[in-house]
């Protein structure tokens, strides 16, 4: 009997192909749907013209909308969704807590604070310095959460609840700091821009953002995939992981660093988008079970598709108006969060 | 492979938890640690498995200091099952046991036929093959303990360390786990609370207040005055008339040992 088990090479090849197909379809749908609907054929023709140097006759305005606005936007949404979802998965596994995610642990709030500080101080200018500010903020926030949690009882299995509480406290603190900075220093126009951006906003996204978001998402995805077995080994806690041959501190440093990096970069581009990191890993676990070699790719693709879908919804739910994408993810995510709470507490043992 | 502790000690928050442990575990023996709660058994097991770094003295595996091995190298030689390993993940028994192959697999190398065979063997040896596809949350305490032992067996380590493997188990599963570990072709080091069960081991180490009070065969070590001193109980060996061997009967000190028990 020939068995194609996922994890063997034939199974993996099939898995990779199907996931890439899903991703490609989502990107094309994202580029086709919007205020003005553009036929899929036109999207494909634009792609052929731009990527493969073909010369299909396409309306110049359509071509501009598809290429300059929607496709770049779909790529950033996909990178962001994948990055945040995988980052949430890593945090949930390492902290052994179903409610861990970069938003709830205050990493997103810290990144926002860092990015706002850079915006208002006007250091450097441009995307990279904003990302550096967001990254520094994310690391400070996460370090704070870890210190608080350690002081409150360490990282033992019994105290992962403390980590979440520490994260909630940290998130509040950083939101307050951000508000303070906006109130004190920003002019009215800056303030409105920043607030819109804090809710998550893909409107201003162009190709340079893609060149930052997509490579970072891919890099972090690959690094985390290399640690799939290590993440499995954390199922029964860090001592159990060490007894299975995992260098626990190194693995934690690399994985948390990767999660913080991807969160920081994404927040610096599109603002703080909540609930993706929380909800998508649970949905993925529901689909393929707890083994990370399967879970990580499915989480990444689901996160990408989820955020592309949320972005489409943000553009078409209210005609003539674009909602902040964070509003859409929260409207879907908050009920999902409640379901996770109920299922986790009711479904245990 | 011989596992040795030399003047081993571990201190946390300036409180010595274990100190001055000198111990040599021979290849293939079943060695048992006994001692009251808080006597340092679990900490000593973690030190022997390299999961805690000694604050004084050393652990040697073969002729090398344990600290010179990588975690992966240790995991291929020493497997440990500590107490109360729990998860909220909905993984199956088979997936749990497959974790035991971690030290033998590269980051992206797929699970091979050989790995699968080893996992099947571990499931069969611990008598849980019929539970292979059950989810963790549906298992009883005894089944979880056996799954953990199967995971440790799948590690194919020469030394198996178990911290109170019979804890929370009914008497049938206690006896079947002890029977299993005695028949395994590996060195076994375990902590046990039941002194009568410890009598079935090759050698016993008695821990008391972080120190190793005595090491030897059961009859050498489990003397009445030592048990009275370490465990604060009165003990009386009773001979089983049907088999001719003796077991220990305990009472609180000062109480009459016969007659007036409720």
Briefly summarize what is shown.
The complex is a heterodimer of chains A (about 350) and B (about 260). Chain A is an all-alpha fold and about 350 residues long. Helix content of chain A is about 75%, strand content about 0%.
What does this protein look like?
The complex is a heterodimer of chains A (349) and B (262). Chain A has 349 residues and is mostly helical. Chain A has one domain: Orthogonal Bundle (ABC transporter involved in vitamin B12 uptake, BtuC). Chain A is built from 14 helices and no strands. In chain A, helix 13 crosses helix 14. Chain A is globular. The model of chain A has no long low-confidence stretch (mean pLDDT 84). By secondary structure, chain B is of the alpha/beta class. Chain B folds into two domains: 1-77 and 157-232, Rossmann fold, CATH 3.40.50; 89-155, no CATH class. Chain B has a six-stranded mixed sheet, with helices on both faces. A four-stranded antiparallel sheet of chain B has the order 2-1-4-5, with helices on one face. In chain B, strands 11-12 form a two-stranded antiparallel sheet. Chain B is globular.
What tags apply to this protein structure?
heterodimer, A: mainly alpha, ABC transporter involved in vitamin B12 uptake, BtuC, 76% helix, globular, B: 262 residues, alpha/beta, Rossmann fold, six-stranded mixed β-sheet
